[in-house]
Specification:
The complex is a heterodimer. By secondary structure, chain A is of the alpha/beta class. Chain A has 2 domains: about 120 residues, Rossmann fold; about 170 residues, Dihydrodipicolinate Reductase, domain 2 (2-Layer Sandwich). Chain A has 11 helices and 15 strands. A 7-stranded mixed β-sheet of chain A has the order 12-11-7-10-9-8-15. In chain A, strand 8 and strand 9 form a beta hairpin. In chain A, helix 4 runs parallel beside helix 5, helix 5 packs antiparallel against helix 11 and helix 9 crosses helix 11. By secondary structure, chain B is an alpha/beta fold. Chain B contains 10 helices and 16 strands. In chain B, strands 3-2-1-4-5-6-15 form a 7-stranded mixed β-sheet, with helices on both faces. A 7-stranded mixed β-sheet of chain B has the order 12-11-7-10-9-8-16. In chain B, helix 4 runs parallel beside helix 5, helix 5 packs antiparallel against helix 10 and helix 6 crosses helix 8. The radius of gyration of chain B is 20 Å and the shape is globular. The chains are: A alpha/beta, B alpha/beta.
Chain lengths: ~325, ~325
């Protein structure tokens, strides 16, 4: 299986390391690394023994390439997906699928028409702790989930190329880019969302969801933490038969404290049982082999996108938004 | 200074009675409780007089009362205490309606007595530290607060809408609402809430999610749910994530604990609970009230503070009923 890595930024680099070192991906050959900046493409291409290019045509015209792995800023997802699909390539696309429903629907339609598979990188479903939480809830061992709290907080992601996260027309902002993870997990685990109410203050968001099941969810998202803050996630499920709570700060098993040239340094390590970014790619290639539909296929990503866009709409209008289009 | 306690319907009365016995220069002169069994037992435990009728207690030579009756009875007890010229420390929520709370405030004002609302969390050491951090400007301008005040399912009248005026949202909105007003020195202007009964088979709300707008421009959310199961190692929590333009503060007010592990049935079984070592917030709240009676500066919550916090809970119920944000203040309905 030949694949082309499209985009050699932060996420492209994460995927490159997964291809290079994850045993389950050893059958996948990265043939091309595309990036508009040649030196970035070249760096990852060297790591992977691939060819670097700044011309998408090189990838699309290579008949050995069966799939593309799109790790580009969100506003580029639609044009690259449409071109790849038209060339008959299967598409793995980073989340969020896009920042408008129109673009997302066009992407799904392009892949459907071309008969290629589309998977969107809702990677939280492949994180060991979130998968375990999903399985615990679905097992019924703590009863029915009723009040859910999730948090995802970090400093502003300034490290991105061109600082593209700062442009909401490209990234969608902290609800669409960041807490889409938790909202997708909630949908996956607890079903569809009926109503959304949200408030935003710059890069900080507070979102309340009422699910079809009746459960109430609170999702906190922050890109407003000070630079240097540890990336923080929390999940709590209050259920009829018990409570489940986890957070990545208190479950950090290894802290290293040092003094380097007079500066106190505190490092935190929590090694993943298996790289979740590798696991989602393994799932994608497995689906290509077997013909099964990926867990996070295009329609699934659209449903999650509908919820985060509704949250942005609520934050803008100050009113709750009932999904299905009507404003309550 | 001589105190009376009107009713032990709210379990906080036991902690306040203990605090009164530990504060020098203060005496607990009597306990009134319409529930004779409960009142007599409390009087025996705290070595004081028992009165079946609170009017008898108010007729005695006491300076102040602490009211720990069911929420709906606060107004009757507070107005009577004010007319008897007794200073009043009233359990939260101050009442169950804006009109009743205003009547309590007016009665105290006319009688020239102090009326404070029992918000002990203000006096919790880590909370005071957070207030200092905010006041020192370490966080810059506050843009958002994400708070919780979780609890376990309470018993008895807490589940009776006529007595309690509401469930989890009424019981647990007021503490954090008060902290936000106190720390940020601003008012709530709007509340949206989802409120429901989802976790327990009871006839009152046991969970909710509030989103509030502050006049300062900051946004807040608050989870007041009775969502801790019996097995939870403590009664609940008060937490606040405070997001500022220069920094972020995370408060878990009752985190100053050690863990106790008990193995009654051998190495495989047993239970875990928290053993707190933080400051005595209930006692320091009663001390603040005593300062107020003496006319000294203090950080106790006024009757108006009590009303403002309760108003957020009332607005939450109204919002949930209408599925729409509700503006504050509500006004006297």
């Amino acid at each position: 299986m030949h694949v082309a890595l499209i985009g050699a930024g932060t996420m492209g680099s994460t995927h490159a390391h997964a291809y290079k070192s994850f045993p389950g991906l050893s059958q996948v050959k990265v043939a091309w690394v595309f990036d508009k900046a040649h030196e970035r493409a070249e760096r990852l291409a060297q790591l992977l023994g691939a060819r670097a290019t700044t011309r998408l045509e090189d990838v699309l015209e290579d008949e050995l390439v069966q799939a593309v792995d799109i790790c580009l800023p969100t506003d580029l997802h639609r044009p690259f997906t449409e071109q790849a699909a038209a060339a008959g390539k299967h598409v793995f696309c980073e989340k969020p699928i896009s920042i408008t429903l129109e673009d997302a629907r066009a992407m799904v339609e392009a892949c459907r028409k071309a008969g290629v598979t589309l998977m969107v990188g809702h990677v939280l479903r492949f994180f060991a702790e979130y998968k375990a939480a999903h399985e615990l809830v679905r097992s019924g061992r703590i009863g029915e989930a009723k009040v859910i709290r999730a948090t995802r907080a970090s400093a502003f992601p300034r490290w991105a190329s061109d600082n593209w996260f700062a442009d909401e027309r490209r990234s969608g902002g902290p609800i669409v880019d960041l807490i889409i993870h938790d909202i997708d997990w909630i949908r996956w685990t607890l079903g569809e969302v009926k109503r959304v109410y949200a408030k935003r203050n710059g890069n900080y968001a507070l979102v309340t969801l009422r699910l079809e099941s009746g459960a109430i969810c609170h999702v906190e998202g922050s890109w407003a933490h000070p630079e240097g803050s540890p990336f923080t996630t929390k999940l709590e499920i209050a259920a009829t038969g018990g409570l489940f709570a986890m957070d990545n700060q208190s479950s950090t098993p290894l802290h290293v404290q040092r003094n380097v040239d007079g500066q106190y340094v505190h490092e935190r390590f929590s090694p993943a049982p298996a790289d979740p970014y590798a696991l989602e790619l393994v799932h994608f290639f497995e689906c290509l082999k077997t013909g099964q539909t990926p867990l996070t296929h295009g329609e699934e990503a659209i449903r999650t996108l509908e919820v985060v866009l509704a949250a942005n709409e609520s934050a803008r209008t100050g009113k709750p938004v009932t999904l299905g289009g009507a404003t309550a | 200074m001589k105190f009376g306690i009107i009713s032990f319907a709210h379990m906080h009365a036991y902690s306040y009675a203990r605090a009164l016995r530990e504060i020098p220069g203060v005496a607990l002169a009597g306990i009134a409780d319409a529930d004779a069994e409960r009142g007599k037992a409390a009087a025996a435990r705290f070595q004081t007089e028992y009165y079946p009728d609170y009017n008898e207690l108010l007729a005695k030579d006491i300076d102040a009362v602490i009211i720990c009756s069911a929420n709906a009875d606060h107004k009757e007890h507070a107005v009577a205490a004010a007319r008897a010229k007794k200073h009043i420390l009233c359990e939260k929520p101050i009442s169950i309606s804006v009109a009743d709370a205003q009547a309590m405030i007016d009665a105290a004002s006319e009688a020239g007595v102090v009326l404070q609302t029992a918000f002990p969390v203000r006096h919790c050491g880590p909370v005071r530290q957070l207030k200092a951090v905010v006041e020192q400007g370490k966080l810059g301008e506050i843009i958002a607060i994400n708070g919780t005040n979780h609890g376990k399912m309470p018993p008895g009248w807490f589940l009776d809408p006529a007595k309690a005026g509401g469930g989890a949202v009424m019981d647990h909105t007021v503490h954090v609402a008060d902290l936000i007003r106190w720390i940020c020195k601003t008012e709530f202007t709007e509340v949206y809430a989802e409120v429901d009964t989802l976790l327990h088979d009871v006839g009152i709300d046991d969970c909710g999610m509030l989103t509030m707008q502050l006049a300062s421009g900051a946004i807040c959310s608050l989870d007041p749910s009775w969502s801790r199961p019996d097995a939870f190692p403590t009664w609940g929590d008060v937490t606040m994530q405070v997001i500022g333009t220069k920094g972020v503060a995370s408060l878990d007010a009752f985190r100053q604990v050690g863990m106790v592990y008990v193995s009654p049935g051998g190495s495989s079984g047993g239970s875990v609970y928290e053993y707190g070592w933080g400051n005595d917030a209930d006692k320091e709240m009663v001390e603040a009230f005593i300062k107020a009676v003496k006319g000294e500066p203090n950080e106790g919550a006024s009757g108006l503070d009590g009303l403002k916090a309760m108003e957020v809970a009332l607005a939450a119920y109204e919002s949930a009923k209408r599925t729409a944000p509700v503006k504050l203040p509500l006004g006297v309905a």
